[in-house]
Every structure is written in structure tokens, then in C-alpha cells.
């Protein structure tokens, strides 16, 4: 009878699937305490990312050091939306993998409290891992302090073969109003909380809004890669209607252009 009850309970709440082999895939997802292989990892070629040459070189150099097992930094990529932060992280990892670097990407979401489990799982693996936390923001200072502990000085800091690569829309990850709520007695503490977290990242790369020439250069690069002729005036009008010039808007224009031409991307 107990066996039947146990079987029924298992059907209602099946055990989690086993984690994927951490040596077998170029990219993974960390979800619900399980490491799973990403279904498709097809980052853009690095040379298609325009206007971020210095950021590109800095991140690639840092990830190359991580892959070679020498000292490397945790990295914060911050700045305007749509300027290529997330695309650069994936492209940098992909470029190094193309050169046979022993490096994988793990997209970890924002469940910071489960990261120590991930660290324990990958620490003994003979491979380097870029732990990718995309579009990070906080609802409270306690979450920021959790990340700060993981970055440096905590009992469960990340292992030597892993570094955190974080993207955010602002350099100070804790909004001033939230920090001030938590530090009402001493406002200076709110500033310290903001700076203490940002300063834990040894590599901080800023991404800024681009001008019209930069936007058209990105459109031109995408269009050339996909064999699409384009009208610069139309491309500018596309961005104007959206109120933004960015790599993301440039790609959206290319998708529209390809669709009108009856081409797949």
C-alpha cells in the first residue's frame, strides 16, 4: 500500500530531471535548481556588433582569461536599452568557443538565492563558466546584498572557474529610493549600498545611446550580412517613429525589411 501511495505522490510531484552534462554543451539555462542545455545557441558574429569596439575587446579579453584559468573579473555591462549588452555577452562567448576555448555560458535568470547550488555543481568541472544574469534590477536592498556576498567575501562566493557577467540598465543596481527606504536613519548608507555593489565588479562597461551615423552603420552591417538593400532615409524614419536609435531598433528594421522582401533570417 505504501508503495502505491509513494508512486501516486511521485506522479503528482515528479522529481526534477537530472542536470545536463556540464561538459557537453555550449550554453545552459539554470532554472528551478536544474542545469539544462540551451536548445539553440547561435550568437551573432562579433564583427556584426558595431560601435562597441572597446567594450567588445575588454569583455573578450576578460573571458579569455577565465577560459585559460588565470585571474579574471566579474563584469557589469550597464547602460541604455537596446545597445547590445546582452548580444555582446553571447557573441563574446561564441567567439571564444569557435577558437576551442573551454568556456560555456550559463544563463542564470535572477534567482540569486539558488546560485550557491549552481556554484557547487560546476566547481569541480574542468571547464570555465560565464554565469550570465541579464537585465538585473532589484526590488529591495537585501537582494543586492545577496549578490554582493556572492561576488566577494561571502561564505558561498562563486568558484574559481566561474565569473558573473551581469547586464543592467543602470550602473547603480539599487534604485536610490529603495536604498533610502532601507537606510532612512543614515542616508549615507544608501550611497554606500549602491557603490559597494557596483564596485564589486572588477570590469564595468558602459553602453550609451548612439547617434544617427552609428545607427546607420549598424543597419548597414546587418543588411550586408543578409544581402538586403536598404534606404538610409527609410531606416532613419523607422527609428524616428520608435523614438530610439539602437542596435535593437536597427535589427527590428532589418526584420521588417527582410519580411517585405520575402526572405527568412
UniProtKB/TrEMBL annotation:
<keyword id="KW-0067">ATP-binding</keyword>
<keyword id="KW-0547">Nucleotide-binding</keyword>
<protein>
    <submittedName>
        <fullName>ATP-binding protein</fullName>
    </submittedName>
</protein>
<dbReference type="GO" id="GO:0005524">
    <property type="term" value="F:ATP binding"/>
</dbReference>
<dbReference type="Pfam" id="PF05673">
    <property type="entry name" value="DUF815"/>
</dbReference>
<dbReference type="InterPro" id="IPR027417">
    <property type="entry name" value="P-loop_NTPase"/>
</dbReference>
<dbReference type="InterPro" id="IPR008533">
    <property type="entry name" value="DUF815"/>
</dbReference>
